[in-house]
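Reminder to self: tokens first, then the designed residues, so the page reads top to bottom the way the pipeline ran.
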């Protein structure tokens, strides 16, 4: 897989996958994963689109930066990478934290985005209690490493039923840098509220959520759907927080219809 080192990204080296040709479809992973969470979509949509899936700063094989990584930083990283790759306008999708990065991109450069996919995410800023929890979790990851956290949240990430999915998700979580994950948690705790951004953006939108998602339940998806006139809401039955991996056939059908 290619990597690129860009001075506009503080010299970090970004690992990414670039498959297929045609209209660009950019996929942004969630926390604490890497670009391989989009493997079913990379395989399926590269027949019709140029599919771009980067490892975010601090995740996968992209450079780890410590301290605090704001969603703004992730969005600017993404814009610089897409500039380098010659992708001026694109469809942009993200799951969970990745969905919030998509919202930050909508806030900063909506003119470049042809349509968005917001999966299992929320536009609302963290409450004081949620901010404290993210900060405490960041400290825990630095203290304990990723293993105990990964085991604890697996069943909230994916519903039981597929050992291969379990193994993939556990592998991504255990392989994530605690420093990178902690930096993202601290930055995410300070994210703005995106309600007005979604209300005003006016781009086509597909909203997807797993019926069993505890992190960002159906009510969060319904809020986004209500904010974005003309958007389509798809509830994937039996899936938890990662319907693109748990039920790839249903997720891909919904995304293909949206792109068409």
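Designed residues (260 positions):
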């Amino acid at each position: 897989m290619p990597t690129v080192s860009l001075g506009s990204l503080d010299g970090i080296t970004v690992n990414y996958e670039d498959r297929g040709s045609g209209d660009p479809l950019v996929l942004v992973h969630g926390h604490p994963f890497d670009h391989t969470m989009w493997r079913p979509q990379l395989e399926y949509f590269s027949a019709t689109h140029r599919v771009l899936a980067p490892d975010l700063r601090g995740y996968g094989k992209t450079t780890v930066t410590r301290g605090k990584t704001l969603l703004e930083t992730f969005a600017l990283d993404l814009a610089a990478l897409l500039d380098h790759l010659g992708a001026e306008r694109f469809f942009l999708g993200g799951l969970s934290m990745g969905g919030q990065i998509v919202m930050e991109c909508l806030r900063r450069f909506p003119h470049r985005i042809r349509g968005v996919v917001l999966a299992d995410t929320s536009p609302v800023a963290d409450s004081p209690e949620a901010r404290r929890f993210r900060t405490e979790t960041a400290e825990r990851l630095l203290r304990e490493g990723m293993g105990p956290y990964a085991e604890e949240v697996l069943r909230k990430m994916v519903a039981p039923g597929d050992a291969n999915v379990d193994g993939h998700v556990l592998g991504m979580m255990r392989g994530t840098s605690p420093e990178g994950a902690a930096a993202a948690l601290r930055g995410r705790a300070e994210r703005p509220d995106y309600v007005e951004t979604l209300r005003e953006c006016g781009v086509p939108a597909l909203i997807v959520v797993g019926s069993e998602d505890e992190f960002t339940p159906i009510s969060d998806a319904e809020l986004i759907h209500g904010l974005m006139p003309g958007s389509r809401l798809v509830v994937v039955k039996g899936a938890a927080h990662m319907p693109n991996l748990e039920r790839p056939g249903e997720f891909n059908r919904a995304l293909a219809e949206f792109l068409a």
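The mean pLDDT is 96.
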